[in-house]
Amino acid sequence: MMRVARNPAIAAPLFATPRPVIVQSCIEGAQGRVLIDREPDPRTAAAVLGDFAYLAGARSAAFLEGLMAAGPFPVSPQILIPCNPGWTRLLEEQAGHGLVRHTRYATMAPAAFDCDRLRWLANPPEGTVLQPLDASTYALCRTETWSCDLVSQFPSAERFDTSALGVVALASGRVVSGASTYARSRSAIEIEVDTHPAWRRRGLARACSAALILSCAARGIRASWDAHTEASLTLARQLGYALDHAYTAYLIERA
Q: Where are the alpha helices (DSSP H) in 95-223?
């Protein structure tokens, strides 16, 4: 059986520390949901936010089946990440049967970012300008498929303004790239980066990301970067991150 935890913090002991920003945000009750098998002493849990579900505690085939079917809850994760060997073994058993292996890359931020280099990288190419993601650009981001994930985890511009940080690149008043907050815990953000297909390979993602990291540094907020692709890892390295380790996530194949 799967249920939404009324007090997400009860699942915290099932997730090893340090926790990913997405997991921590769910446990703090800031975003997403924590799904558990029982209360008040859960044995199995999933921290679910947007496309992601982090699986912890005792492996459970029934629990996994509920997640893959989206269950009775308004959640529909696309990326499953095991947090212990038991869950890894269970997901491996399902690989090729509704799940596809996918390599992601966990990165480490430097002890201190090179802010002079970041300020240099934050210079946008000619014809574009950077600005903080605000109420007007929040609305613009929601209008296009490529940019919606820059704000998708915050249901309103007001919620974004109070909880998140973001930087967008504009060309003739149109958002063409951005780096923003996908998840927010008390002390950190998980960075989301997107660029309009017609504007890629011009340095816009790098400029927006550099400006966002500078904004985080000025506020004492840790900027976390978990790369979904090798291209994302390359960009992270340009900004000062280093590869921590590659790991296997599992993508749900939905009909």
A: 115-121, 135-142, 157-163, 204-219
With tokens 């000025």, the residue in question is 218
CA 154 to CA 157: how far, in whole Å? 7
pLDDT digits (tens, 9 = 90+) for 73-87: 556 789 999 999 999
Q: Please report, for residues 121, 214, 246, the alpha-carbon distance to residue 219 in angstroms, rounded to integers and kept in the order given.
A: 19, 9, 29
Which residues lie closer than 8 Å to 230 by C-beta, 6 or more apart?
105
Cross-strand pairs, 184: 189
CATH 3.40.630.30 domain residues, the chain: 110-224
Contacts of residue 5, Cβ cutoff 8 Å, sequence gap at least 6: 11, 33, 34, 35, 36, 39, 42, 45
Q: Which CATH architecture has domain 110-224?
A: 3-Layer(aba) Sandwich (3.40)
Return the CATH class of domain 3-104.
alpha beta
Q: How far apart are CA 61 and CA 174, in angstroms?
A: 46
Report the b/e string of 184-202 with b at 16+ CB within 10 A.
bbeebbbbbbbbbeebeeb
Condensed to tens digits (0 to 9), the pLDDT of residues 85-97 reads 999 999 999 999 9
Digit-coded pLDDT (tens) for 113-130? 999 999 999 999 999 999
In the chain, which residues fall in CATH 3.40.630.110?
Answer: 3-104
Residue with tokens 């989206």: 70
> Considering the chain, what is the average pLDDT of its residues?
95
Q: How many CB atoms lie within 10 A of CB 174?
A: 14
Q: Token digits for 230? A: 């090798």
Write the CA distances from 8 to 75, 194, 245, 252, integer angstroms.
16, 30, 28, 24
